[in-house]
Inverse folding.
């Protein structure tokens, strides 16, 4: 039914006055959308490249597992964390992954509330990416707490022998609540949005095991109008809940830093600046994942150039917000008249971590400026390169914030340089293995595109509204 | 065909297929106008405008979620108050713990967690409430047996009018549906013979529940019983760390000897190390000894003090009279207050306050040697139940005599103790010691008469005896 060769990108990025640019191309009808999305899932075997990437991802996952095991056996000394850099790469990686995990909910919730219909073909994959990124993010503080086997002390669980409770006045505990709430709500939102599409899979599935599995997962969904009515209300409520939630999560993550007294951390700009950075890195990660995925699965008619261009525009906008924040930080340091603050920022740019700072500025502020050129933001392979640089830059942003401030605290006698260990590096690389494995499995077994939602925004009959 | 199935199955409704959402909506409108109520439309996506067409009332879900969220707000605040600010313990004790000088309960600090709890509870209320109101999950539905209906999740639109509607009439309803533009009409029948779960489902379910119950049952069993076997140590090197604790014996080596010859596990500071803030080079301020005197007669000792301030040196350090030096050189002591000290009203009042805290227990509030400890000890001593040297009266002639007891000597007495009096240098900062000296001098000016003769003579005798011991008697006598 998908008659148009999906490998050809149709340029739908130009605005035609008086008409809406179509979001589904190739003349696809409802059945065409279903066919396009289900084709890779119904294929007997996934493409060879899928197996190759899965093999690579599983090896990295193995590395991660080995590192975590080593850590548990030996203790946190296997990391490069030292005095005074008590927060090393684990926290850098945590903030990095949580940041990436912001795009999904932003696309599903905030763009939904703003009635941005173009979100429908990217929200499912973005939500999945969110959840997998939060899984990676949760790993790092989880193993950073030292005694992992009593991790449940983080939560207010009544225990007879401990007779203590978490300290609710600490931002670190707010973080526990924020990240776990975010993970839970994201999974609920993701799963609820997926049920109608899983029902499609159930109705098309041919294998016995698949029928049972998708049958249970789809909860007996029929697509009844009464069900849709409550479903849409629930979806809107969840979107309305997730919108402040997604903003609160990175705000609270930034409180981990901003509520402390350390020069370079103790700033009120952190919450908005962290949220902008999170959206920035999250969208970059979505583009990085979706460009290869749409090519591999032939989804060019659903994830069109217009979708990619829109995301690139958001990347550029948030990139400039982040750039502005970098500038404002210096201004406030100067304007505050506090020598410690001034030193902290001069040290960031010109101290012994100058290289990290300038990698960050180059990747986050300079490179996204390429998206001013239309060719750059509508050429898939090129935008992936830019987006990879953006995420390198965003990792370095968290590195710069965490490490440079800690290595130059109030007492010069405790100043030190930070060196990551091999375990640090392998864990970061390994976390990509975990993320990629989960994403590949998602692409193989679950609906990558929200079919029901795409169909609901397609023009039908005579009225093109 | 229908008759044949009548025994085994029951007609649930008539299912009509439509090819696009607009004809579905118009058919729904027609059906509603025709008086049908028990009907439902099925579509692959939410068709807008269908709610009024089949007469769907607005769901209660938002109200439900609001109530849950509202309750969660108080539950969240209450939990934080109970766990962090309350001390009462109905079941599990609260833990009111001051930390970082933060108030036990303050809204700004408790908003983030409250907010997250509201969002979490509301999200669950939305999710579970929606499925509950939709009566899902429901795995047994006659619709799923119709192969045509599989396209309801793909590209086709359906309207089912159910038999329970009072206007339902098998043939009439069918003709009406045809009239409203149905592409195809099919009976939806419920299979009455197959209304039992497959037997293996129960078995698997029971087995699953049983297996899931095992871990909690094991945990509760072990929590409720005592055990003779040692506690489970997950990570032993955390519980038994390779370190020596304070105040314990030195570790023993393989040959049976102590690793450290002094048999202590704790190590003393390296010779010559001086703790931060304890350099104390100013002998006038910290030892009450004239600078000139120190430079002239005792330079060797002072240098030794500077080079080595280890614990051992403590007795050598202050330029105290040597053990051999029977005749004390009174000229070494300061007769003035040192430069860093300004004697004014506030200073003397400070001295009074410190005196009342540290000195009055033995020496009495008026300095006459009649403090409570002294009274009690004297009473016990009279019965032969205690050995006690009476506390000195500040108004004693010897003590008052500036030539025998210059300011520096009083300061030194407070700092290092004298005779049976213990040293207070560790408890009282140097400035406060000078303040006490000032207050003692002020007390002596009040003209209070020395206490009873017995105390005086005892004290005087004692002083003579113990002066012979060089004032090194450190017997604890203080409270």
């Amino acid at each position: 039914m998908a008659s148009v060769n999906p490998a050809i990108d149709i340029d739908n990025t130009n605005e035609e006055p008086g008409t809406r640019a179509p979001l589904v191309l190739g003349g696809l009808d409802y059945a065409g959308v279903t066919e396009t999305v289900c084709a890779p899932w119904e294929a007997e075997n996934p493409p060879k490249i899928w197996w190759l990437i899965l093999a690579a991802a599983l090896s990295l996952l193995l590395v991660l597992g080995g590192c975590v095991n080593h850590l548990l056996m030996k203790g946190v000394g296997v990391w490069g964390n030292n005095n005074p850099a008590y927060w090393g790469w684990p926290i850098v990686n945590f903030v990095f992954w949580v940041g990436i995990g912001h795009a999904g909910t932003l696309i599903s919730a905030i763009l939904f509330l703003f009635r941005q219909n173009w979100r429908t073909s990217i929200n499912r994959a973005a939500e999945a990416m969110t959840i997998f990124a939060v899984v990676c993010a949760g790993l790092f503080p989880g193993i950073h707490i030292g005694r992992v086997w009593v991790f449940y002390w983080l939560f207010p669980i009544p225990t007879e022998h401990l007779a203590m409770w978490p300290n609710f006045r600490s931002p670190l505990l707010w973080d526990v609540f924020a990240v776990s709430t975010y993970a839970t709500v994201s999974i609920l939102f993701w799963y609820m949005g997926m049920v109608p599409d899983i029902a499609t899979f159930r109705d098309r599935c041919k294998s016995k095991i698949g029928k049972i599995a998708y049958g249970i997962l789809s909860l007996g969904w029929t697509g009844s109008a009464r069900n849709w009515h409550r479903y849409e209300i629930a979806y809107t409520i969840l979107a309305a809940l997730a919108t402040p939630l997604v903003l609160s999560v990175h705000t609270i993550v930034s409180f981990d830093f901003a509520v402390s007294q350390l020069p370079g951390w103790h700033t009120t700009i952190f919450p908005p600046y962290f949220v902008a950075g999170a959206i920035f890195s999250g969208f970059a990660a979505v583009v990085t994942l979706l460009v290869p995925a749409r090519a591999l699965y032939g989804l060019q008619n659903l994830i069109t150039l217009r979708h990619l261009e829109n995301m690139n525009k958001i990347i550029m906008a948030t990139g400039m917000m982040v750039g502005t924040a970098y500038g404002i930080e210096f201004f406030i340091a100067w304007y505050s008249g506090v020598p410690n603050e001034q030193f902290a920022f001069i040290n960031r740019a010109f101290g012994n971590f100058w290289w990290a700072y300038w990698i960050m500025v180059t990747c986050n502020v300079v490179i996204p400026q390429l998206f001013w050129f239309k060719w750059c933001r509508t050429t898939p392979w090129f935008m992936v390169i830019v987006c990879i640089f953006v995420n390198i830059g965003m990792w370095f942003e968290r590195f710069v914030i965490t490490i440079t401030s800690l290595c130059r605290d109030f007492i010069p006698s405790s100043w030190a340089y930070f060196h990551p260990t091999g375990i640090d590096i392998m864990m970061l690389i390994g976390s990509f293995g975990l993320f990629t494995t989960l994403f590949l499995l998602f692409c193989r077994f679950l609906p990558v595109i929200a079919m029901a939602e795409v169909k609901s925004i397609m023009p039908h009959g005579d009225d093109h509204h | 065909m229908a008759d044949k199935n009548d025994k085994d199955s029951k007609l649930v409704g008539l299912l009509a297929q439509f090819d696009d959402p607009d004809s579905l909506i118009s058919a729904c409108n027609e059906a509603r106008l025709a008086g049908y109520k028990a009907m439902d439309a099925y579509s692959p996506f939410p068709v807008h405008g269908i709610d009024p067409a089949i007469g769907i009332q607005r769901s209660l879900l938002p109200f439900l979620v609001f109530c849950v969220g509202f309750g969660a707000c108080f539950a969240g605040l209450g939990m934080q108050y109970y766990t962090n600010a309350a001390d009462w313990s109905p079941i599990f004790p609260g833990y009111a713990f001051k930390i970082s000088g933060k108030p036990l309960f303050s809204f700004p600090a408790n908003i983030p967690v409250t907010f997250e709890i509201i969002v979490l509870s509301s999200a669950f209320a939305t999710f579970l409430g929606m499925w509950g109101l939709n009566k899902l999950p429901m795995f047994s539905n006659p619709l799923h047996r119709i192969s045509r209906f599989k396209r309801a999740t793909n590209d086709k639109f359906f309207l089912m009018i159910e038999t329970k509607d009072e206007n339902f009439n098998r043939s009439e309803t069918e003709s009406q549906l045809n009239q409203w533009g149905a592409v195809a009409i099919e009976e939806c029948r419920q299979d009455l013979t197959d209304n039992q779960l497959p037997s293996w489902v129960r078995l698997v379910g029971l087995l699953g529940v049983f297996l899931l119950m095992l871990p909690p049952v094991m945990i509760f069993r072990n929590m409720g019983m005592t055990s003779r076997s040692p506690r489970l140590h997950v990570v032993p090197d955390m519980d038994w760390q390779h370190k020596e604790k304070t105040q314990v014996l030195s570790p023993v080596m393989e040959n049976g000897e102590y690793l450290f010859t002094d048999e202590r596990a704790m190590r003393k500071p390296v010779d010559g190390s001086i703790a931060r803030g304890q350099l104390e080079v100013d002998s006038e301020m910290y030892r009450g000894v004239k600078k000139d005197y120190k430079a002239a007669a005792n330079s060797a000792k002072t240098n030794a003090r500077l080079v080595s301030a280890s614990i051992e040196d403590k007795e050598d350090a202050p330029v105290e009279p040597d053990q051999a030096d029977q005749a004390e050189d009174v000229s070494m002591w300061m007769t003035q207050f040192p430069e860093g000290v300004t004697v004014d009203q506030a200073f003397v009042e400070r001295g009074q306050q410190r005196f009342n805290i540290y000195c009055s227990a033995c020496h009495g509030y008026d300095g006459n040697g009649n403090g409570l400890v002294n009274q009690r000890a004297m009473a016990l001593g009279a019965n032969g139940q205690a050995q006690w040297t009476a506390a000195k009266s500040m108004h004693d002639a010897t003590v008052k005599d500036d030539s025998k007891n210059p300011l520096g000597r009083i300061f030194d007495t407070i700092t290092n103790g004298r005779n049976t009096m213990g040293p207070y240098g560790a408890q009282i900062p140097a400035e406060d010691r000078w303040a006490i000296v000032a207050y003692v001098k002020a007390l002596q000016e009040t003209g209070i008469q020395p206490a009873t003769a017995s105390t005086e003579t005892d004290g005087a005798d004692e002083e003579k005896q113990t002066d012979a011991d060089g004032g090194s008697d450190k017997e604890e006598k203080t409270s």
Observations:
- Chain B has 18 helices and four strands.
